[in-house]
## 1
Amino acid sequence: MTRETWLVAGLGNPGPGYAHNRHNVGQMVLDELASRIGGKFKTHASRAQILEGRMGIGGPRLVLAKPMTYMNLSGGPVANLAKFFGIDPAHVIAVHDEIDIPFDTVKLKLGGGEGGHNGLRDISKALGTKDYLRVRVGVGRPPGRMETADYVLKDFSKDEKKDLPFLTDTAADAVEELVNHGLEMAQRKFNVA
């Protein structure tokens, strides 16, 4: 695998009122990655908080980014950071909530549709391509007739909160596997369900 720089964008909404919502699980995963790398997020001119570091000694260089825009406007900060650091879209990883897979499941893919996820749609538009990597963190489908938007903007349930550290840990492992061993190997390990 190449040792190029990777941009890992954890999607979510800014501010403490959204911090524990299902929609912000991507940013929760970045907090786990940041704890592994060491260091603190700093504000960047791209309207994101970033942390630069390496995955292990001599490992790949990562730019962890939390866009500080609302989810639907994630593309600008992601594209600006990719340009600033000279990172090709093939080395951009969006970590995001995914209602189409069960809670506690993590899957990886390259490109494809956005499945109604406005954050991904905005990133595709800003990068000019859908061909970037996605770490899809399962939050499950809304119960009954609850609107999807209402569901993802709610905090995880009491039961889910018990398993949330395992989910964010698994998603962080998936990012590590992706940058260290490539998509195919990471999919074999994580896309099993």
## 2
Amino acid sequence: MAGTFYGIGVGPGDPELLTMKAVNTIRKVDVLIAPKTEKKDGSVAYNIAKPYLRDDVEIVYQVFPMVKHFEESTEAWEANMKEILGFLEAGKNVGFLTLGDAMFFSTYIYVFRLLEKKGVNIETIPGIPAFIAIGSHLGWPIVEGNDVLSIIPATADKETIEKVMSVSDNVVLMKVYKNFPEIADLLVENKMIDNAVMVSRVGMPDEERIDDILARKDQPVNYLSTVLARRTPEK
């Protein structure tokens, strides 16, 4: 009998933020896939899940290239899928660890789509996204009343970001590491800079909170950084 493939959201960084279902799933799988990029050693998701691993679980690191258009660079993804299929066909249950939530800006989504086409039995375990953890951690209401909240990937083109910010009361800006100076300027233009905060690596030992975003405008930003901002009310 073929095994089951589990996508497991491990949350933003604090191992205590995993759901009970995520922990129970991690403890019952035979193989755990720990995704990583070509540029980094180890896996952040693996480190978060590490306290809950069985001694006999098999850890498999898979490299997933960071590409803008997934469909244009599928060779590595296909190879990883075949490796996963091999485990499943051998009757092993396989877990795939992913930061935050499995269906929210995650590498898992692409793997899910590939395996779904193969008729694999799949179960996805939700996790806490970074911006939700940041809001609770800082006592920062993310959205309330009739406010309009927009979640914006900062990797989108500038025109799209400008349009969305212009009609939003509150914004969550993800992936700000690539064009942080431009994002800082847009927060100023949209009267959000006075009510903005950026947190890097939330829930991890080296977590950092940045309240004066303009002062950090020209400095490098960690990959795992998220900005929460709200529009300053008109006087």
